[in-house]
Design a protein that fits this description.
It is built from seven helices and three strands; from the N terminus they run H-H-H-H-E-H-H-E-H-E. By secondary structure, the chain is an alpha/beta fold.
Amino acid sequence: MDPIKVLTANIDKPDSTAIATYLDAGGYEAARRAVTSMTPDEVIQVVKDSELRGRGGAGFPTGNKWGFIPQGDGKPHYLVVNADESEPGTCKDLPLMMADPHSLVEGVIITAYAVRCHFAVIYVRGEAVHAIRRVTAAVQEARAAGYLGADILGSGFDCDIVVHGGAGAYICGE
């Protein structure tokens, strides 16, 4: 039985970093479904039911983590994606950012919606200049296509993403 590729499904495709390639593979459909036909709580429940786990060493259940975030407190919420990847021997974020950055952007949109956040920062190791450029280009393409910015896909949900290059020290990821 061949394994089902999830995170690496688009990596070997020509122009894997282009939004057209991502859309042809069904990209942004999950984000569209989430923001136009589900409540944030329903998204969190789907993620809990999927048993999706974080890619860090602890493998903590993602839906549980999202469920811990206080809701309705009247305070702005910010989503920070730590793609610094500066731990020795770690290579889990860079391949995704280099070959399929739109999957990261779509994941950020879904996460932001689920946790009722309107602004996200993707923090990338400063030395990973090519990854910063690719993720920034993906954010720009997503914004131009209506997946980021004000009133995403007519849903009433606003969200934007900034890609920030780090300062080159392990602690900066924190």
